[in-house]
Amino acid sequence: MPVSVHSGRDLDVTSDAIDDVNVLKGKLWDDKSEFDENKDKTRFRDYDAACDRVKAFYKEQHEKQTVEFNIKARVDFKSKTRARMSVWEAMEKLNTLIDESDPDTSVSQIEHLLQTAEAIRRDGKPEWMQVAGLVHDLGKLLLLFGSEGQWDVVGDTFVVGCRFSDKIIYPDTFTANPDSHDSVYSTKYGIYQPHCGLDNVMLSWGHDEYLYNVFKDQSTLPAEALAMIRYHSFYPWHREGAYSHLANEKDEQILAAVQAFNPYDLYSKTDSPCDPVKLRPYYEGLISKFFPPVLDW
Predict the structure, then answer these.
(1) Residue 217 burial (CB < 10 Å; 0-12/13-18/19+)?
(2) Does 166 count as an annotated binding residue?
(3) Which of 8, 10, 91, 161 could form a disulfide bond with 191, CB atoms 3.0-4.6 angstroms apart?
């Protein structure tokens, strides 16, 4: 039989048809992920076997993420605009960064963003969730906007202002953090009230919290997408069950969204390389549905 030769246009039509079928299937954002069913998940987040670079990163992060620093970081955020550009321009600007906290991948950031978004797309999840996957790490632009290092941009996040949870990666490295010895910050509730809600606590400052604050007033993303962005690195909470004494009923609802997003962020890192040039028209179309042409960063 003759071999069929498909043009790029044919492939685009096929891709569009798959998207249409997924819409007809009525896939919901909280349907179980399917793309990762055959992946060996024991290979991910193996911090015991992590290289020295990763361990040194977390030691520095845990020593320096204090209440004092977090207050200063939030004041600095509100005091200036760091850049004005589109979402896709931000993705391209980020592309030279390698995340020193990540033991699972060394690919460029645009590659990781597209892998995440494409995994969500293949599972037929809503467009807003695909966009959340595409943009979720853009807060790492802080590295280009005068951060003090990688320790105040990337890595797992945790609550500051109360006792550091033993569910955080490498918990012993908090001994050099002055808040560990503070008479208030070292207590179970610290400066917070029982079940005050995560909206009312300070998470360690980094790309999650920064990007959430950039997007919450400059996008039409739904609350579930904003939660995925804000808490996707908050592993002590959404994976290990820590901080239940601070969470409230609202947090129980958004937890489901963060957990639904997590497999796409984590397990897409071994997927085939993506072609940004080929995928750009599709994703710029989605971006335009949820963001203005230019944002304040």
Answers:
(1) exposed
(2) no
(3) 161
* 286: nearest Cα among 224, 209, 212, 221: 221
| Number of Cβ within a 10 Å radius of residue 139 | 26
The least confident of 12-26, 39-53, 217-231, 252-266 is 12-26
Please state, as a whole number, how many other Cβ atoms lie within 10 Å of the Cβ of residue 120: 28
Q: Does 146 count as an annotated binding residue?
A: no
- 265 annotated as ligand-binding: yes
The pTM score is 0.83
6 is in an annotated binding site: no
Strand, helix or coil for residue 4: coil
Average pLDDT for 245-254: 96
Stretch 36-65: mean pLDDT, rounded?
82
* 9 in a labelled binding site: no
How far, in Å, CA of 195 to CA of 248, rounded? 5
- What token pair was written down for 29? 């954002």
Residue partners of 14: CB distance under 8 A and separation at least 6: none
Cα–Cα dist 113/276, whole Å: 10
Q: Is 33 annotated as a binding residue?
A: no
